[in-house]
Amino acid sequence: MPLLDQLASLLGPSGLLTGSDMTGFESDWRGLYHGRAAAVLRPADTAQVAQAVRLCAAAGASIVPQGGNTSMVGGAAPDESGAQFVLSLSRMNRVRELDRADMSITLEAGMTLKAGQEAAEAAGLMLPLSINAEGSATIGGVLATNAGGNLTVRYGNARDLVLGLEVVLADGSVFEGLRRLRKDNTGYCLRQLFVGSEGTLGIITAAVLKLAPRPRQREVALCALPTAEAALALFGRFQQHDPGAVQAFEYMSGTGMALVNALIPGATLPLAEPAAHYVLVELATPREGGDLRAGLESVLEAAIEAEEVLDAVLAESEAQRLGLWMLREEHSEAQKRAGASVKNDVSVPVSRIPAFLEEATRVCEAMVPGIRVAPFGHIGDGNIHFNLVQPEGADPAGFLARDHALMDAVGAVVQRLDGSFSAEHGVGRLKPYMMPLWRGGAELEAMRAIKAALDPQHLLNPLVMLPRP
């Protein structure tokens, strides 16, 4: 029986899509990759995932695991051959267990991050991971890319929340590691191999994640600053005052903020004058009666007196808090509306962020006169999305033709500052060519050895992460 017929028999009518039904699964969110899949597989449970993988492995057919398809680097897009199967876990979207005493939740991989957050909140707890795409991004994809997001400064990246995983391996066997143990020093920590592996080593089908107490109080302020050095100094002030209260510390450039205010309906800068740099700081505590407002005001007053902060506005209601966060969260959408953009998801040591911003901006402006340098990101953990928007009126295709040259120029600055070219978005199909320079030698060979051991036929997401030998 042909492979497609076997898969159709296994998955049923709602579990296999072909033809026009595959629209939306074959291209990435940014529109960089437009592939053609053999079919889209939508298994209903782990057993069906395992059997589908076994059938594909026996036929030598490649599989591209796909979550919410929100990858910024083409990590979930099939190639143009028409031979690869997209495997979507969208039907596997249940909460398997929530343990209040253990402060953990077991979620299937197809559940959106937002739905996972809501399940935790309904139990009076918090799933402390937040990214802009949380309404679409799924748990499996979030873990496969080791997403970071806005709360990393306090709670860490996705891998820091993982207690256990269930993973279907390349031969269809199942790694049953859904343990809730906080301490388990028994052999290699295999679950961490799959976190951040971008679907190249196995297909995550479920996860046990740590929860946190839900904040009883939040305070948010938007600050205008004269320099990037001032943003770093302000972060130091909040860290010295009460590091446990800092839940988010987000940086935005004046260029990026101007695009948001110009192109996003309802966006309004609630400050008297525009500035060259901005910071959004959120403090939070689960304590009753935690007086965060007094601490926030005290730190900001000292920073204003030291001329590190030019102006600041504090949210007086939940609606205002959400309004301030919208100014940060709509940066990607505003840049998309402004034209073609080249995205650099980089990290450097926190102390070197001002030097990076200054040097990388100078390099890019010299390469492309009129380029709009619009960085933003998580300054508290050193991760900056150094995004470059085409000059006004420029040809988008012509600008994108220089994407790798611009990425490499930014990367050279990052490398001199001991940083990374991929902080939280992954490598995907866009950046494997950078791996030999950044992770060559023993490190890259170790990765290839792990890939060969777990996926000897090279069938799981074969174009992602590792450059072909």
From TrEMBL:
Residues 33-214 form the FAD-binding PCMH-type domain. One of its GO terms (molecular function) is catalytic activity. The keyword Flavoprotein applies. Coiled coil: none annotated. Keywords: FAD, Flavoprotein. The keyword Flavoprotein applies. InterPro entries: FAD-bd_oxidored_4_C, FAD-bd_PCMH, FAD-bd_PCMH-like_sf, FAD-bd_PCMH_sub1, FAD-bd_PCMH_sub2, FAD-linked_Oxase-like_C, FAD-oxidored/transferase_4, Oxid_FAD_bind_N. PROSITE patterns: FAD_PCMH. Pfam families: FAD-oxidase_C, FAD_binding_4. GO terms for biological process: respiratory electron transport chain. Belongs to the FAD-binding oxidoreductase/transferase type 4 family. This is FAD-binding oxidoreductase. It comes from Endobacter medicaginis.
